[in-house]
Amino acid sequence: MKRLLVLFTPLAFALLSASCSDSDTTTSNGVPSPEAGAVGADFGGGSGSSGSSGKPGGRAGASGKPGAGGGSAAADSAGAAGVNETDDQAGAAGAPVTLPVDTGTCGKLPGTVLYIESGDTQENLLKNIGRHLRDTANITLAFFLTGSCTLTGDMYAGANVLKSGTLKYIPSTVEDPNWTPAMIEPTCTTGPGGVSLDLAISALFVDSCGLGATPASLGLIQGPIQAYTFIVPKASDQTAIWAEEAYYAFGFGAQNPLAPAYNPWNNETFMFIRPSTKSTLVATAKNINVPPNKWKGVQEAASGDVVTAVSTSTQPKATIGILGAEVYDSNRSKGIQTLAFQAFDQKTAYYPDSTSGAFDKQNVRDGHYTLWSPTVYIAPVDSSNKPRNSAVKYLVDLVVGGAPPAVPPVGAEAFDALSDVIKVGLIPECAMKVSRAADGGPLSAFSPADPCTCYYLSKTPLATGVPAGCAACTSNAGCAGGTCSHGFCEPDAVSTAGASPGCFSGPPTTNAEIINACTNAQHVTKAVALPNDDPEPLP
User: Tens digits of per-residue pLDDT, 431-474?
Assistant: First the structure.
């Protein structure tokens, strides 16, 4: 099922210019503007303030949670391309500008070439689906990796990007039969005119970047769900982290009042984070209420750098990092482990999966694990809010899944793109039982029109045969009154079997009931004594 996130009305690009061009100010969510560097307003309530008390809110039935906020509009480099894009924001105050394109070698790539700017958490998906698109539909994906807030700003500005730069692209089997998605991509070059973007892929709600209203010419289409995680070395004795613990660790650093009694994370040289434009940091920031520009720790340029820094740390007990869950999944054997997470107002901690060793993302899908955001596909759209570029529409339809299925271009062969989505650790919306409207926002119950939980479980790593509790089918008649979807009889309701401390029994409806619903999933109970009922204001 494809969901358009926003209904657009014509708005002047001056709104974008106001939020992105003032070198002396920050956006209203406490995030630096592109020229503001690390200087930013305090976190809280959409205005950057902490409220009249000067403190964020409290926990679990006290005063609520720390004020909402987060996101970043700060521009960073063009990822692997390493190109200075300072001039690429021209045109932000007026109509989108398409500059003459000197294509370089990228323009000589075969078939229909789609120019894409994406967060690095989506690289594995681009590799896998790109190979299939090249082999079956003569579509070549050429892309570069940046932060989600940088790519959103680039797409909003509408100007050409990556001038005299380097793009990664996916070859066909005929071009390079030995290449696999586990390998580094080949590259091509752009000319001095750069390229005009066909598509941008964010890994969080674009509102979290604080860039103002979305231009009327663009559409935002919600894609698969991306989970995030805290990681520590295998040698660490820590197995869980409260949201409050993360607030104090990453918001206070060396001044962490909980260290070393309840957590050991107060040495900022062993706390590995991402830049403030990256979805991994921005989305996590929204869930622990430490604004991106106030995080303590060592910024690593790429997710792989975080894996290396954490796994090779000489101080494993003091070490912690943040990663996209799909990056963690592909690096589990490299001396790292994920921490169970206990959200604000939650009574115990959970892993993204049903157990620390599983790959089923059960707790993300049913709401027990709250560190997640949707991916958002940003593209020029027509009056029906559908991507103008037919190849982009096909790609988006493939990734989103749902009914009706994506229609291949004339002469192209259909393939199971949803399998690629699941293979790389993302969660299609059709497998979700909860939804949210903003990063870090409350969860609500969700029933997809075309559920695919059983199909999803049949495609995850370690899956063998028909998943437990599922039955193969070809029509609803074979499901005893249930729904036959994606080849399996789908259960009608979320299971609340099992037990966990103080759990809610019955169909959950509110955020508090969802995150505390009874479950058979592994949970981790960790006793922590907080300094005060209301968290201390950030230093």
Answer: 999 999 999 999 999 999 999 999 999 999 999 989 998 999 99
DSSP structure string for 386-442: SBSSHHHHHHHHHHH--SSPPPPPTTPPP--HHHHHHHTT-B-GGG-SEE-SSTTPP
- Choose among 176, 205, 145: nearest CA to 327: 145
DSSP code per residue over 109-122: SSSEEEEEEEEGGG
CA dihedral 439, 440, 445, 450 (to 10 degrees): 30
Residue 321 exposure: Cα atoms within 13 Å on the Cβ side? 35
Q: What CA–CA distance (Å, rounded) separates 63 from 151?
A: 36
Q: Using CB atoms within 10 A of its CB, is residue 462 exposed (0-12), middle (13-18) or buried (19+)? A: exposed
Closest CA to 123 of 168, 174, 176: 168
Question: Is the four-CA dihedral 488, 493, 494, 498 of positive or negative sign?
Answer: negative
Strands 240-242 and 199-202: unpaired
**Reported pTM:** 0.82
The residue whose two tokens read 């892929």 is 201
Q: Facing residues of 226 across strands?
A: 373
Alpha-carbon distances of 271 from 96, 309, 319, rounded to whole Å? 40, 9, 6
Please name each of the domains of the chain with its CATH number.
Answer: 224-371 (3.40.190.10)
Contacts (Cβ under 8 Å, ≥6 apart) of 243: 65, 287, 288, 289, 341, 342, 343, 344, 346
